[in-house]
Amino acid sequence: DIQMTQSPSTLSASIGDRVTITCRASQTISSWLAWYQQKPGKAPKLLIYKASSLESGVPSRFSGSGSGTEFTLTISSLQPDDFATYYCQQYYSYSGTFGQGTKVEIK
Amino acid sequence: QVQLVQSGAEVKKPGASVKVSCKASGYTFTSYDINWVRQATGQGLEWMAWMNPNSGDTGYAQKFRGRVTMTRNTSISTAYMELSSLRSDDTAVYYCIKGLPRSPFDPWGQGTLVTVST
After folding, report:
1. pLDDT, tens digit, for every residue of A26-58?
2. For residues A81 and A77, what is the distance between their CA atoms, to the nearest angstrom?
3. Which of B35, B44, B111 sits opposite A96 (nearest CB)?
4. Closest C-alpha to B59, from B81, B42, B44, B38
C-alpha cells in the first residue's frame, strides 16, 4: 500500500500568516493527490485535486503544488475560517490512503 | 444535487456486527464508485473499502479483509458496509463517499457514529 506522510502534525500560526503543509508519498503517485479541510464534527471538504487544481468555490488563498512524491498545500494569508485540520490523500491507487493530518491552530 | 445520506448512529457490543447504509441521490448510482472511510475520535482518516455498484466489484484495505463486506441494492441506490467481530477500537464515525477511479473523494455522506461498548 502507498503510505502518505504529512508534516507538521500541528502548526501554530496567526491571522495573515503564510502557511505551508507538506505531504510525501512512499512511491510516485504522479499528480493524483487531493487536499481536504476538516472542521470538528464535520465531514472533510475537498480543497485541491490533481495536486494543484482548486475545487470550485474554494478561496484562491489556497494553492497546491508538487508531483511524483512531494507535495505542498499553501495558504497565502491565513483567515479565521482556516483554523482546521488538513489531510492529503493519494488516489493513484484504489486504496485512497490519507496522510495523518495537520492541525492548524491559532498562535 | 448529489447527496449521500447515511443511516443513524449505532451502539453495538464487542463481537457483534454492524451494517451501515448509504443512500445516493442526484446522480446515477451505478455510474460511480462508493468508498468507505472511518475516523476514530480525535484521529485521522482511514480508508476501508471500495465498491463499483454496477459490477459489484470490491476492494478492501488489508487491515479489514475478512471483517468488512460491501454490498448494494441498485433498485434503491443504496450501498451497505458491514463490519463484523466488532472491537472497542472500531468505535468511529464511518463515512461513505462517491468516487471514480483516479478521482478525489467528493462528496461525503454525513457520517455514522458506531460505538462499540459493553
Report:
1. 999 999 999 999 999 999 999 999 999 999 999
2. 11
3. B35
4. B81
